[in-house]
Amino acid sequence: MVVLVVATASDPASIGPAAAFLAMPGWSPGPPIPVSDLGGMDSFINGDVRLLKHERSIIAEDDLDLRWQAATGEDVSEVIFLSKHTAASNRPALTVHPIGVPHLREDETLPQGGRPGWVALPNPRIGPWLRLMQKIAVDQGLVPEFEITLEATHHGPVTNTPTMFVEIGSTEEYWGRQDAAQAIALLLWKGLLEEGKTVGTWQGNGEKVLLGIGGGHYAPRHMDIVIKDGVWVGHLLSGYSLPMEVLPEGTGKSFSEVGGMWKHSIKVSYDATKAAFPGGEVIAHLDQKSFKGWQKTAIMSYLQKLNIRIESRSCKHTAV
User: Fold this and answer.
1) Do strands 42-46 and 28-29 pair parallel, antiparallel, or not at all (unpaired)?
2) What is the number of other CB atoms lying within 10 angstroms of the CB of residue 229?
3) What is the pTM of this model?
């Protein structure tokens, strides 16, 4: 099984960390891949890590894990995309997040790739790597200038194995910062290749996994749990991924009377998180202050119907 790390030359926040990662020891050229299979990508090998470089949009390369397997015969265990991050605040940031667009209907436009109603399997490294990235950023002097944060589940591309994005934000001034690129490269090295010390490998010991429900895009209340209690991280559904509307004939007091894609978002995100953490206990953590009373009632009753354990504060267990 191999790990795919994917970068695009069209994005300085992607190719910069990739170049810094390739400058570290142990790399050799990867196998030649026909253009018809992978669209003319360069590949590099280091242990069980495969770094792929292309020149297209990072969110446009659907099924890259299956295409790599078909072209090389190597099974893919996970995919890690390197990308830029944009934000209205323009604040410099290093972020990690799962991907998917579970709230979109079939007839809705995909603004940033994926497939309507779909989520990827969340990469188990998200929580441990967030904490490792915080340490690296402090050690490298990037904090407090850079914010180190989770993001909620959003965008594509479509994948079939556990996936995460690692991003540098939030403007062109920071996308090309060499110190930020070096910090991400060090995260990749320590997380994937440092001998005897790889970080974030799921062992399936019945540990608790957070499924975040509600809140804003940067999931501050969920992140507080992840940092302080050291839990594993599954999907993080912000308010925009939980569209809710009271049906004309309903009162909103029962989940069956509340329309919208919110139930689908919760169900597919729970199922994907469960599949990514076999043997784990997925626990829904609600940002209760982000919901109106009728919304919270509907969500909690739906979670109970699905037999998903609910916690509103701590689900402590250290993930490394």
Assistant:
1) antiparallel
2) 17
3) 0.93
* DSSP-assigned letters across all residues of 123-190: PTTHHHHHHHHHHHHHHTT-TTTSEEEE--S------SS-EEEEEEEESHHHHT-HHHHHHHHHHHII
Taking the C-alpha atoms of residue 127 and residue 232, their distance in angstroms, rounded to an integer, is 5
> Do β-strands 49-54 and 42-46 pair in parallel, antiparallel, or remain unpaired?
antiparallel
Any alpha helices (H) in the chain, and if so which ranges?
12-22, 35-38, 64-72, 126-139, 172-175, 178-188, 220-229, 262-276, 293-305
pLDDT at 173: 92
Quick one: pLDDT at residue 313? Answer: 59
In which residue ranges of the chain is pLDDT below 50? Answer: 314-315, 317-318, 320
Distance CA 100, CA 104 (A): 10
Evaluate the CA torsion angle 209, 181, 151, 153 in order and state its sign.
negative
Q: What share of the chain is helix, strand, coil (3-state, %, to 5)?
A: 35, 25, 40
| Model pLDDT, residue 320 | 45
